[in-house]
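BUG-261 | component: ligand-complex export | severity: low

The export step for nicotinamide-adenine-dinucleotide jobs runs without errors, but we want the raw record kept on the ticket for reference. Input record follows.
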Amino acid sequence: MASRLQDKIAIVTGSGSGIGRTTALLFAAEGAMVVVNDRVDAAGRETADIIKESGGQACFIFGDVSDSGSAQAVVKQAIDAFSRVDILFNNAGGSQGVKGALGDTDEEDWDKVMKGNVTATFLMCKYILPFMVKNGRGSIINMGSQFGVAVVPSFAAYSTAKAAVIHLTKQMSLDYGRYQIRANCLCPGPILTPGHDRFLRSKPDYESAISERNAAVALGRMGLPEDVANAALFLASDESAYFTGSVLVIDGGYDARLCSA
Ligand SMILES: NC(=O)c1ccc[n+]([C@@H]2O[C@H](COP(=O)([O-])OP(=O)(O)OC[C@H]3O[C@@H](n4cnc5c(N)ncnc54)[C@H](O)[C@@H]3O)[C@@H](O)[C@H]2O)c1
């Protein structure tokens, strides 16, 4: 199963940390030329350096992909360098530190979460699609969340944004299937990444927060970035040639539980 992405060009947004970084490393190990992107310069450079030091191919393009000019610049630089992009993993996103029921959510915070998740995904897809259409193929992987499928209290903006990402993915699969462009959405449950760890450390009791999450999952543990990266690799590769418009939940069985009894 080696080299499942041999000679493919892949952009992974937000790959300076967490799921994005682990996926970028895996894609490179499978033979892809990886365009690492992040809005944190040092973090993105570090990912590209790790790949290159282990014999893989990578370049880093700085930019906040929720900004139209930056998203266009990322696409332009990737196309200028490699003439095509085969795989786009829209991983960048997150809750942006916003939590609350709808009535407690400021308009500014609402906009921030929509921009960071829905607009970022929209912009990257919008500007890469003409090149994928020209090529007559492409695999787009969008980052949803378990929160986009079902909800927990007090995540009004984030849950709504991730649900929108799921629908955006389904819409693209219909509109671009005829060009052999596939669009699929990953919906992870609780994954222990630096981003999630920061959130847990903001709670009064970090150890209890981890234990609660582990206990809520059928498999008895939080997910690892590798659990999601492996699913992204499948969707990026030709092994998933008949997958489009799919919503892949990766949650260790979290969602299977009806209640805590
Ligand atoms: N960790 C989880 O439990 C979990 C669960 C479901 C979904 N997700 C989703 O997975 C994705 C990655 O999460 P993570 O936990 O690995 O986070 P993380 O904070 O560890 O890493 C995210 C990286 O993305 C970068 N980034 C964020 N927004 C960006 C933007 N607009 N442009 C460029 N770079 C940007 C950050 O600088 C950071 O390096 C997010 O979309 C998140 O919503 C995470």
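Assignee comment: Attached the raw record above. The chain has one domain: 9-192+224-251.
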